[in-house]
Write the structure tokens for this entry.
Amino acid sequence: MKPIVVIDDDQDVREVLADLLVAEGYRVRCFANGADALASLRRDSSASLILLDLMMPVMDGWRFREEQARDRRLASIPVIAMSAVADLGPSPVPRPLALVAKPFNVDNLLARIAERVHTH
């Protein structure tokens, strides 16, 4: 199975998500910002899903989505956005498949992940 990519500037969130996902049997790759994740994915585009924080320094989630959409090798990787903002509003970039509000409910998040990973 291809890994799940976790992009979040909060180290505690990255660690908790990585531990949860590994315990569920997933492989995980973690990044602290969109720029590092994008550079890595351009070298190795294997990913079954991206969990993307929207508010980050260096490259935020929206800018990451713009760049992801422009790269034909990365554009088809499904994205679940994570944000403390409950309403994303209109967006000029491709919207994520789903939005999980922070702080997230672990069972809800794992169910959304399983649904996306097993349908793609």
About this structure: Strands lie at 4-7, 28-31, 49-53, 79-83, 98-101. The domain at 4-119 is CATH 3.40.50.2300 (Rossmann fold).
